[in-house]
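User: Design a sequence. Structure:
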């Protein structure tokens, strides 16, 4: 992932969070990302937005320290120059979409940026990239945790914002994941997820994975630790609400639905809405304790 992609993804999440009326914590916040892959770049932009602690949770270790240091240098430049958010002309496949891709100066005002880009703080983040798991200067911390499928890996109610970008469609047990997120988020905390329900190139059609029977699908997956879970949009909504969250935003992307005549048996009961939903952006709030 390039620095500009990481910058665009985090800024989109942040703008959407603010647009939903959530008081973005920014300064001093703790954020958790599911599935960062080979780059911690999205979380590093969060830190350059004022967040102090970043938990990167992955199935297996991918990240490379030298690569992340190089990406961080570029991210510092992008934030310092108040760079507009890369939009559809550069990153047409990135979701969610925004109405305005200008730099979010109302969210990241000069006071916040002065603190976030302070030289000593930048140096502390560099050290944290190199010494993952340690707390630097009493406040800056990056924890890279792989594998992450255990809710006891993070303290309960220790996270302000959790997010992911095209990751949750790869998780086999989404019920357990959403329950873990509920366990980690503080009361009033928010999660922000982009989910891609497409076949990820496994089939020619974006929805061809719903036409493959279970036996054949097991052959397609083989010995891979994960592929795609083939769950529709409604399954995620049920799991989110079942974990105790309140959904505050649900933006869907639509494609041409498949003919029901070609659906595999297990997908015959999918609703018309699920069959045409190719992606979504979901925000959900952990209600504050009464």
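Assistant: Done.
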């Amino acid at each position: 992932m390039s620095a500009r992609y990481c910058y665009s993804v985090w800024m989109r999440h942040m703008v959407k969070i603010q647009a939903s009326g959530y008081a973005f914590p920014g300064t001093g916040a703790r954020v958790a990302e599911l599935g960062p892959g080979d780059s911690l770049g999205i979380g590093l932009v969060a830190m350059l937005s004022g967040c102090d602690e970043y938990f990167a949770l992955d199935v297996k270790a991918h990240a490379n320290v030298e690569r992340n240091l190089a990406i961080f240098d570029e991210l510092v430049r992008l934030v310092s120059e108040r760079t507009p958010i890369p939009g559809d002309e550069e990153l047409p496949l990135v979701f969610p979409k925004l109405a305005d891709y200008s730099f979010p100066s109302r969210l990241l005002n000069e006071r916040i940026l002065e603190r976030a880009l302070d030289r000593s703080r930048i140096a502390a983040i560099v050290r944290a990239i190199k010494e993952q798991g340690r707390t630097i200067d009493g406040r800056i911390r990056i924890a890279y945790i792989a594998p992450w499928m255990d809710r006891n890996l993070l303290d309960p109610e220790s996270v302000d914002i959790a997010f992911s970008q095209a990751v949750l469609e790869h998780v086999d047990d989404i019920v357990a994941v959403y329950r873990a997120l509920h366990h980690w988020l503080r009361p009033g905390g928010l999660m922000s997820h982009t989910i891609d329900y497409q076949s990820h190139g496994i089939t020619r059609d974006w929805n061809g994975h719903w036409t493959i029977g279970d036996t054949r699908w097991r052959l397609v997956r083989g010995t891979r630790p994960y592929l795609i879970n083939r769950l529709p949009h409604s399954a995620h909504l049920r799991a989110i609400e079942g974990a105790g969250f309140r959904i505050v935003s649900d933006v869907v992307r639509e494609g041409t639905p498949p003919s029901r005549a070609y659906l595999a048996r297990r997908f015959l009961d999918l609703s018309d809405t699920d069959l045409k939903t190719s992606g979504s952006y979901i925000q959900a709030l952990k209600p504050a304790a009464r």
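The radius of gyration is 19 Å. The chain has nine helices and eight strands.
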